[in-house]
Amino acid sequence: MTVVTQRAVTRIGTRPLLIAGAAIAAGAMVWLSRITEHSTFAGGMLGPELLLGAGLGPLFVLLFLVGLTKVNNDDAGVASSLINVGQQVVSATDRGPGPVCCRSESFAVLIPAGGGLR
Q1: pLDDT tens digit string along 57-112?
Q2: 63 in any annotated domain
Q3: C-alpha dihedral over 62, 53, 31, 14, to 10 degrees?
Q4: Which residues contact 74 (CB under 8 A, 6 or more apart)?
Q5: Distances from the Cα of 88 to the Cαs of 21, 94, 95, 96, in angstroms?
Q6: Same domain, 44 and 5
Q7: Which of 25, 58, 91 is the last residue of a domain?
Q8: Strand, coil or helix: what is 112?
Q9: Is 68 exposed, middle or buried (0-12, 13-18, 19+ CB in 10 A)?
Q10: Structural domains in the chain (count)
Q11: Which structural domain, as residue segments, surrounds residue 20?
Q12: Contact yes or no for 59/28 (Cβ under 8 A)
């Protein structure tokens, strides 16, 4: 996916690819929100997970590419680590669309309609 993304950047540009990757990932999240407790892996999870990978894979490559574009060679390690730390902080503090969706789905399973934890 990285090679395909790198070739597409030279032909299309980063902005359209960022928008497309985010839209594909958002569509996959919407599709994942439709699964039930009776869904199978092949019927409910496989398609959205493949679509999520197709959207987030190029998205992360492009985020690093844009984040490191005008950085001096001497500062490339620091800039790359700042991008990594930013992604880790967003994931750890539930401040992104992925953790919010997953957290709300987890609470819906843990807390039944009558209240109380299982």
Answers
A1: 898 888 888 888 888 888 888 888 888 888 888 777 766 555 444 444 444 444 44
A2: no
A3: 20
A4: none
A5: 20, 10, 10, 11
A6: yes
A7: 58
A8: coil
A9: middle
A10: 2
A11: 1-58
A12: no
